[in-house]
Write a structure and sequence with these properties.
Elements lengths: L10 H4 L23 H27 L5 E8 L5 H7 L9 E5 L5 H4 L5 H4 L8 E5 L8 H4 L5 H20 L2 E9 L2 H13 L9 H7 L2 H15 L6 E5 L3 H18 L11 H10 L1
Helix pairs in contact: 2-11
The protein binds adenosine-5'-diphosphate.
Length: 284
């Protein structure tokens, strides 16, 4: 069986947020569109990771030749959803030279003095680069909303601001792939437990992660609002169940491959005379 046919419906089609989507109904342990098992998924990840790597090299080559396009992968999810693993196991397939990575934690004093998009704009991918955001401007309508860090009128206005901001980016040549990663409350508990049970995982444990679990329903509401208000034609959300890491990784790999393929990239032509250069090299 060809690996391709393990997807009965493509990731890009089945995971795209649809109007009326209800987050409460999402089975976070499911593997939408994929008919294979974990071993199939792991094998496919290696194979498709190679395809992704070739496509990213094409983008990079074009960027070096003046193409102003870029790709931005936005990873947004609760703690333990697997954002770090996405970096290692998906983005890890591509040449790090072509990746612009940024993660967004609690804003610094300097960042707090500015508009919430200020720190985001500074980290946008350069021309020809694959940008990856580990958390993003969406924190400003998620954690900020849940913890009442600014008044509702302020965070309430941000959805439109974000849509407009992303439209600007898309118009300027950035393809944005927004991935909302959803782990279940039970699976999150298991993953946090593992961080407490294994010394090599202590560094990943943050006591505040457990406090945030109490706010789970408020976070789910905030994520639902985010999906309802910011899944646009120009920058749709993709909803990825993350209880099975192997699935979320192949799903995001496919979303990236699809985005790169839609860019119709080809190798940039030489900006020198190839025959003359061959002759010069032979003589040298
Ligand atoms: P991680 O937990 O992903 O390893 P960090 O510990 O560096 O990363 O920081 C993440 C924390 O920063 C999360 O709790 C997140 O909600 C918080 N954070 C991110 N952006 C903001 C923001 N704009 N306002 C307040 N808190 C934020």
């Amino acid at each position: 069986m060809a690996n391709d046919s393990l997807w009965e419906t493509s990731a890009v089609k089945i995971l795209r947020a649809q109007p009326g989507f209800e987050l409460a109904q999402l089975d976070r342990n499911s593997t939408p569109g994929f008919t294979g098992n974990k071993a199939d998924g792991q094998r496919l990840l290696e194979e498709r990771g190679g395809v992704l790597s070739d496509l990213q090299e094409l983008l990079y080559a074009n960027g070096r030749s003046g193409d102003t396009r870029s790709v931005l992968l936005v990873l947004q999810g609760m703690d333990t959803a697997g954002k770090g693993g996405m970096m290692r196991h998906v983005i890890g397939h591509v040449d790090p030279q072509g990746v612009d990575h940024a993660s967004f934690g609690v804003p610094t004093d300097e960042e707090k003095k500015h508009h919430f998009l200020w720190r985001i704009r500074k980290e946008l991918p350069r021309n020809g680069y694959l940008g990856v955001f580990d958390r993003s401007h969406y924190e400003d309508v998620l954690v900020v909303r849940v913890h009442d860090l600014v008044p509702p009128t302020v965070w309430g206005a941000r959805y439109d601001e974000i849509n407009q901001f992303e439209k600007e980016l898309v118009d300027a040549g950035t393809t944005i792939i927004k991935v909302a990663m959803f782990v279940s409350l039970d699976e999150q508990k298991k993953r946090l437990q593992e961080r407490l049970d294994r010394p090599e995982k202590y560094w990943k444990y943050n006591p505040s992660d457990v406090s945030e679990r109490k706010l789970w329903p408020a976070y789910q509401d905030a994520y639902q609002a985010m999906l309802d208000k910011t899944s646009t034609e120009h920058a749709p959300w993709y909803i990825v169940p993350c209880d099975r890491k192997w699935y979320s990784r192949i799903a995001v790999t496919e979303l990236l491959i699809d985005a790169f393929e839609k860019m119709n990239l080809s190798w940039p032509p030489a900006d020198f005379d190839v025959e003359i250069e061959k002759a010069r090299l032979a003589d040298s």
